[in-house]
Amino acid sequence: MNKKRLLIFVLLVALVMALAACSPDYKWGPLDTGAADNSPLVSNGGSVVAYKGYIYFINGTTSTYEAENVFGEVVYGSVCRIAASKLDSVKENDFGTDEYAQALGAEVLAPKAVFSSNTTDARLNGIYIFNDRLYYTTPSDTLASDGSVRNTMLDIMSVKLDGTDTKRVYTLGSNSLSVGMFETDGGVFALFVDGDANLVSLNLESGVETKADEKVTSSALDVENASIVYTKDVVTEKENQGTETTADYNELYVLKAGQTAPSKIMTGQHADGQDVSYDFDVSIASAANGFVYFNISSDAHGRDGMYRISQSVTDKRLADATLLYRNVLSGASAYQDGFVYYNSTSKYIQFVKEGQAAKNLYYTETSPTFKFIEEETLYFEMDSALWSIPLNGETDADTLLANKLTDKVNATSWLNYDILDGKVFYMYTDDDVYLHFSEIGEAAKDKEIETYVLALADEE
Hints:
Oligomer: single chain
Structural class: mainly beta
Shape: globular
């Protein structure tokens, strides 16, 4: 072998070794799939998901991105699974015993620590299943130029449901981003605003990202509509001066998962026949079920209040939005064409809507913390427990008995409660923060709550 060929060979070997050093070995599985059936996908996202005969869950939560996170060595914080038929076995055996472990038969599906620092909207975090692959976020194991691990970033990972074919799909620049994951007819996508205020649409199957917009000033994800709504300032460059001016109004846009071109929903610019004093900024409160809820405050023309507008309209003005309530209500949750709100003066949880008297739903002297609304039911924390009340308004607010669901509260700020098969799941601290659940059952006075642990104990 001459010197030239030898040099080429040495360089090729060095390249292969370098690639091997920076490409983690993600070999795992296959796990047995003998319990698989055709049961539907239930409770996608969060700490627990049921699909095709199995229950997939986060095996405890770590509070830091600096936790041990070597692929193949992680049990606590990993993604585990059990046959759905084995769930009730935890009621017969104590967690930590051999009997518990043998009866439950939990297995590690993805041996990485699931994590997020997004506490702005915890309902977006957790594990998702799309097209028979499971997706999750974990502190990145990629390396910076100085050789340090970039664990303040997040890797989006995916894995087949038998534990094989683990892939790093994408690395997020921050571990606190609000990321929505959605399945559409065109594939599986993530929508988010990155740290540079760019709106990004990420194809989770190919890993291809598209910058759909820039200079985003605020945003909210609509889980039900698979979309992200956002605002932008209106900036005009002065001709021949090299300077910019920012208008006294902004504009509201929407991007649906699978699309790359956003659509303008409305502008805060004054209507024809009005002067510039009617300009206003759209302040996004939330997005749900294909609507955007927004606030106007300190308005010179008395238009303060909470509004709603459909995400399907194009380039509208304030007159096309619906005023839901004349005041901006702190802590209110959007529901149908109004808001659910705790009135600290009257001590009632109320449904409020502009032009109608507030409707009392439930009386409580203790101020509740609303967690979410699902299937016409409000879930809220109060007195160190999770409770629920129906929102159909068919019961007497003064005699309605709230349903006590837990005797503990969720201990992890980046995960919410999950409702699955008549049970409520949440993370709670014993010695470690593991997944707990209790049966929802019926409301009853002095209701006793039985709490169970769903976990695979880490033997280390």
